[in-house]
UniProtKB/TrEMBL annotation:
SUPFAM superfamilies: PLP-dependent transferases. GO terms for molecular function: 2-aminoadipate transaminase activity; pyridoxal phosphate binding. It comes from Frankliniella occidentalis (Western flower thrips). This is 2-aminoadipate transaminase. It holds the Pfam family Aminotran_1_2. Residues 66-430 form the Aminotransferase class I/classII large domain.
Length: 448
């Protein structure tokens, strides 16, 4: 070996050339020899449709830009006005409820929206209340805000247990006293009220109204992760979002002057178009929108992702997104039905879809018999049937057993319906049920 050649141990690592988030792992959702039911993302058959959508929308937008090319300039901090106008029309139609363009702020998706909420509106030593099972990567985001305290709140088949949210919020507020750095809120309740991840639960109107009342009474923000609201597969109207519910409620008793609103809706095109576009929106009260318009981060960058927002604006104007969303809803309805039918036909005794078969969204929450650990089931299904699903403890802020007992969700699995076609979902469900039955038989003496 020549003197100027580094030793073997000092060689740089191989170039990391991953094609997408799920690349580089045996359980890659694109691996045809393994059925991964973990990933909450549209499949390739649905993403390929986006090629034609974006070709047509881009050509339309570029023809519009030939005069002044404003789309290539630094953008407005809250996003291009025509994008917000078209988005408000689209959402008003799809929600069957008025959405005002002045309440909308462009984001790079719901994850960026959540970061904006935490950075802009919540005290740096504030409190984040979360449902006892929730989107697991949101938990990782919260932990990166090291000055903030995460408090888990019990969850039920109708949403968060509002009485417990009130009790815990009163306790935390009493501990803080009056200290403040000038942020609008001392705490935030992060919730997924419509087609909850991972359970599929929709917060009832009664629980939602109580959550709003508690937030108004105790002065904290409610940040709704509203990325599944438009994926409604049942008959009748889709569940109402909390942002709309708050507007309709009477002011708290004894309230004087204009009522402050406490709910922000955090939306995204990731689930209704394509995750790679990295475009979303916040629907927020006027005072919070104004704060974002003057944000140093957004002003310095000229807003975010203005170019892609402009192309999506054209897709909205041309009706392309309406057609695509209709197709997604029909496709996901069939996939949800195929997975749930196969599970209900083959699940061993003691297992169930919990709390019920979802009427929308991406996920099925599968309850296992008492005493059967979901992580053991996940490993057994992976190793013997080449099927994978997320064990429920991943969705708990505790994420592990403790002196208080097992982590929430430890006897559940989360299954995703969006990526695979109906036939593959049904086959994977049958394989998973076989693996569960086999493990129950092997461990029958420890199940109680």
């Amino acid at each position: 070996m020549s003197a100027d050649q580094p030793p073997e141990a000092a060689q740089p690592p191989p170039t990391r050339r991953l094609r997408h988030l799920f690349d580089g792992d045996e359980t890659n959702v694109y691996n045809s020899e393994f059925c991964n039911l973990c990933a909450g993302t549209p499949g390739p058959d649905l993403l390929r449709r986006c090629v034609d959508i974006f070709e047509e929308a881009t050509a339309h937008r570029m023809a519009h830009e030939r005069k002044d090319a404003f789309l290539f300039q630094y953008g407005a901090t809250d996003g291009p006005w025509d994008f917000r106008e078209e988005l408000s029309r689209f959402l008003s139609k799809r929600y069957d409820d008025q959405v005002n363009e002045d309440d909308l702020v462009l984001t790079c998706g719901a994850s960026h929206g959540l970061q904006l909420i935490l950075n802009s509106f919540i005290e740096p030593d504030g409190v984040i209340f979360v449902e006892e099972v929730t989107y697991m990567i949101a938990i990782a985001v919260f932990r990166e805000f090291s000055g903030m305290k995460i408090v888990s709140v019990p969850f039920s088949d109708t949403g968060v247990v509002a009485s417990e949210l009130e009790r815990l919020a009163r306790e935390e507020k009493a501990k803080r006293g009056d200290r403040s750095t000038g942020k609008p809120f001392w705490a935030v309740f992060y919730s997924i009220p419509v087609y909850h991840n991972p359970t599929g639960v929709c917060t009832s109107q009664e629980v939602g109204a109580e959550v709003v009342r508690v937030a108004q009474s105790l002065g904290f923000l409610v940040a709704c992760d509203d990325v599944y609201n438009l994926l409604h597969y049942g008959a009748g109207a889709a569940p109402r979002r909390l942002h709309s519910l708050e507007r309709s409620l009477a002011p708290p008793a004894g309230a004087a002057g204009p009522r402050r609103r406490h709910v922000v809706s955090n939306g995204s095109f990731s689930k209704i178009l394509a995750p790679g576009v990295r475009v979303g929106w916040l629907e927020a009260p006027a005072d919070l929108v104004q704060q974002l318009r003057t944000s140093g981060i957004l002003r310095s960058g000229g807003g975010v992702n203005s170019y892609t927002a402009g192309v999506i604006c054209s897709a909205l104007q041309l009706g392309l997104l309406d057609k695509h969303l209709d197709h997604l809803v029909a496709t996901f309805r069939g996939r949800m039905r195929a997975l749930c039918d196969a599970l209900e036909a083959a699940l061993p005794a003691g297992c169930s879809l919990h709390p019920a078969r979802p009427a929308g969204g991406y996920f099925v929450w599968l309850r296992l018999p008492p005493g059967l650990d979901a992580e053991a089931v996940q490993r057994h299904a992976r190793d013997t049937r080449r099927v994978s699903a997320f064990p429920g403890a991943l969705f708990s802020p505790a994420s592990a057993s403790s002196a208080h007992g097992p982590a929430a969700g430890s006897s559940h699995l989360r299954l995703a319906i969006a990526f695979h076609d109906e036939q593959r979902l049904a086959a994977a469900a049958r394989d998973l049920c076989s693996a569960i039955a086999e493990l129950i038989q092997q461990r029958g003496d420890v199940l109680v």
